[in-house]
């Protein structure tokens, strides 16, 4: 048997080295928490180390070897994490797929990858096999000739982006470790407790929650059901750090504002819950990524002296490129580059990235790789600018740059972010390519609509009629105009339609990370769009 190379967490160049170093350092300390029956059940680092090695033996017995592609489909669980590290032990390539994808889409990606092994987990996969193996022996079991190196392919992550064209991003062991270590240096390596809300099948949670937890040797708790139990779990766990997407933070602002409204209307109903209170009361920092975050949301958090820190990254960069300091308040910026990452702006403003975190390329797609990788520089497709303090600000997507019939250029995502800063508006998509003026499809905040209907005693017979009621339409129009009041005439939304449902992942209108797919939405609502220009 070959021994795992000795490495400290900061000198590790592969994930198994990082993991083993932390297991030996932390041993009997609590590591991974699972919420069961209203309580947190803890697994120690030593228990996790033994479970990973046992699972690696099982995988080896099943014929999984170095370089094999292994698909894993399942929600966040102990088993998901153990399987991930066991595959790294063997030098296999982990290909996680989102559970939100349809069965046919999952099969399409399995076929494209060529993976011979598929692991499917259910929501109950949180049991950890007990072992008496001592942490002194952990790391000594590594199959002969199977130790992965820094250049070994670690994972393939399928990202459809907003166009629907799936691409398999190839990330190496060095990509993931370099990004994880640099991120810890930037935000500070603390023995903190964090609650995982995002799916580990997405690189954001995988690097910023899972691998950062391993590097720091801190405590990680899996949210039982992010869609249903997030707020309840926050009250139980009282996390110090959370990574999430803008949609969740906007929801928290809406809930806190609704609490203020409730307390104002009924003085005997008790004090309003703050954002900090909704998150358990001990929260120290909230990090945000995955999409643009409305500056008004950052400002609302700042009112409670709660840092909401939007960073910037993409799957092809493992993913973190820039991260803000918790000591600075800059709602329009996404921080500075990590210490080992270079960022430049092309002549047209496109953000270019170079560093050890940049992907190897796209799986089985050399032409797509050549389109975005030149001399080590990754063309991100995002437009940016530097502020006076050297922080990066995201302007929009290069491919989404919209030209009106008048020749005026528009970045629709920037307008959508502003519009959605209204507590009355949950989602919005701006239309206008080749048109004389801008229009929008608006998804209203259902709680605000319901509250207004009840408060004003409006006579409506259905949800559809509720959102189209003249009073509701007038409120939405007022909100849109207020959010865009500081912009020139060509950036004003002249017409809009209010729809009675949110944009859907199942209908292909959103990606698994909740980014909007503009082309699909425009196709699905072609009739409504045509009416706004008739």
UniProtKB/TrEMBL annotation:
Cross-referenced Pfam families: AMP-binding (PF00501), AMP-binding_C_3 (PF23562)
One function term, GO molecular function aspect: ATP binding
This protein's record includes keyword Metal-binding: no
Aminoacyl-tRNA synthetase found in the keyword field: no
Domain AMP-dependent synthetase/ligase: 22-363
GO annotations of cellular component type: membrane
InterPro entries: AMP-binding_CS (IPR020845), AMP-dep_synth/lig_dom (IPR000873), ANL_N_sf (IPR042099)
Domain of life: Bacteria
Keywords: ATP-binding, Nucleotide-binding
Gene3D superfamilies tied to this protein: N-terminal domain of ligase-like
Name of protein: AMP-dependent synthetase/ligase
Taxonomic source organism: Aeoliella straminimaris
UniProt lineage: Bacteria, Pseudomonadati, Planctomycetota, Planctomycetia, Pirellulales
């Amino acid at each position: 048997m070959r021994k795992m190379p000795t490495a400290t967490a900061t000198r590790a160049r592969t994930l198994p080295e990082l993991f083993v170093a932390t297991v030996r350092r932390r041993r009997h300390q609590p590591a991974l928490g699972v919420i069961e029956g209203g309580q947190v059940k803890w697994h120690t680092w030593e228990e996790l180390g033994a479970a990973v090695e046992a699972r690696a033996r099982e995988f080896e017995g099943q014929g999984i070897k170095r370089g094999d592609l292994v698909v894993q489909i399942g929600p966040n669980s102990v088993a998901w994490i153990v399987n991930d590290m066991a595959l790294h032990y063997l030098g296999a390539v982990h290909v996680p797929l989102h559970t939100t994808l349809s069965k046919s889409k999952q099969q399409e990606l399995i076929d494209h990858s060529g993976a011979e092994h598929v692991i499917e987990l259910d929501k109950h996969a949180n049991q950890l096999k007990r072992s008496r193996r001592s942490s002194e022996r952990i790391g000594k079991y590594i199959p002969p000739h199977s130790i992965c190196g820094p250049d070994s392919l670690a994972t393939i992550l399928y990202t459809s982006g907003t166009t629907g064209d799936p691409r398999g991003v190839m990330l190496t062991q060095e990509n993931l470790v370099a990004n994880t270590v640099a991120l810890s240096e930037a935000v500070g390596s603390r023995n903190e407790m964090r609650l995982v809300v995002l799916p580990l099948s997405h690189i954001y949670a995988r690097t910023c929650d899972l691998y950062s937890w391993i590097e720091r040797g801190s405590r990680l708790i899996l949210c039982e059901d992010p869609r249903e139990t997030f707020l309840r779990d926050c009250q139980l766990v009282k996390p110090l750090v959370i990574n999430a997407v803008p949609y969740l933070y906007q929801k928290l602002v809406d809930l806190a504002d609704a609490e203020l409204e409730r307390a104002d209307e009924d003085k005997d109903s008790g004090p309003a819950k703050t954002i900090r209170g909704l998150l358990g009361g001990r929260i120290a920092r909230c990090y945000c990524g995955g999409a643009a975050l409305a500056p008004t949301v950052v400002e609302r958090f700042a009112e409670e002296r709660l840092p909401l820190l939007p960073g910037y990254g993409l799957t092809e960069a493992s993913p973190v490129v820039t991260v803000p300091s918790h000591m600075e308040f800059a709602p329009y910026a996404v921080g500075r580059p990590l210490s080992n990452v270079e960022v430049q702006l092309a002549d047209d403003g496109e953000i270019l990235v170079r560093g050890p975190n940049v992907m190897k390329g796209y799986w089985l797609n050399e032409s797509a790789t050549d389109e975005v990788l030149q001399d080590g520089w990754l063309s991100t497709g995002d437009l940016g600018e530097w502020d006076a303090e050297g922080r990066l600000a995201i302007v929009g997507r290069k491919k989404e740059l919209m030209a009106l019939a008048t020749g005026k250029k528009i970045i629709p995502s920037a307008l959508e972010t502003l519009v959605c800063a209204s507590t009355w508006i949950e989602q919005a998509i701006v239309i206008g390519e080749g048109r004389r003026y801008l229009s929008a499809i608006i998804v209203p905040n259902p709680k605000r609509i319901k509250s207004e209907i009840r408060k004003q005693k409006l006579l409506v017979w259905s949800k559809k009629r509720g959102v189209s009621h003249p009073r509701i339409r007038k409120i939405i129009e007022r909100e849109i105009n207020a959010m865009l009041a500081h912009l020139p005439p060509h950036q004003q939304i002249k017409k809009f339609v209010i729809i009675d449902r949110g944009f859907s992942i199942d209908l292909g209108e959103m990606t698994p990370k909740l980014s909007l797919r503009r082309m699909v939405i425009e196709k699905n609502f072609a009739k409504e769009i045509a009416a706004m220009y008739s």
